[in-house]
Amino acid sequence: MITQDFEIVNQIFQLVEAGIVKGYDAFSYSVEWGGNYMEAELAVEKDGVEIWDAETDFNNSKIYMLVEKLHENAAVRGEPWKSFVLSYRDGEQVRTKFGY
């Protein structure tokens, strides 16, 4: 991943993180890329309980455009991933894992 990709991942993180309405201790945002569509899931952990239907308030279209650009960058480098998981626990580093 190059510098521009770090910036894109950071923007995705900021949108998701700010859009979790009732707070969190940790979250995991999973994306599967299908070319003209993406499937995304958000798992939020709060007080030791994992929540798969957490209330959110973020613009999926903005996230889609960022994910599309992230995928385009990877494809140009010959690294066309099929999925990625963005995870974060409060006070720790953001982690990103790509599936090929």
Number of DSSP-assigned strands: 5
Number of helices: 2
**CATH fold node name:** Murine Class I Major Histocompatibility Complex, H2-DB, Chain A, domain 1
What is the overall pLDDT average?
94
What is the CATH architecture descriptor?
2-Layer Sandwich
Low-confidence spans: none
Give the CA-based shape. Answer: globular
Give the % helix. 25-40%
Distance from first to last alpha carbon: 14 Å
**Percentage of residues in DSSP E strands:** 25-35%
The CATH fourth-level homologous superfamily: BH3703-like domains
Structure description:
The protein has one domain (3-99): Murine Class I Major Histocompatibility Complex, H2-DB, Chain A, domain 1. It is built from two helices and five strands; from the N terminus they run H-E-E-E-H-E-E. The longest helix is centred in the N-terminal third of the chain and has 17 residues, at 3-19. Helix 1 (3-19) packs antiparallel against helix 2. The chain is 34% helix and 32% strand. By secondary structure, the chain is of the alpha+beta class. The chain has helices at residues 3-19, 60-76; strands at 26-33, 38-46, 49-51, 83-89, 95-99. It starts with a helix and ends with a strand.
Brief account:
With 100 residues, this protein is of the alpha+beta class.
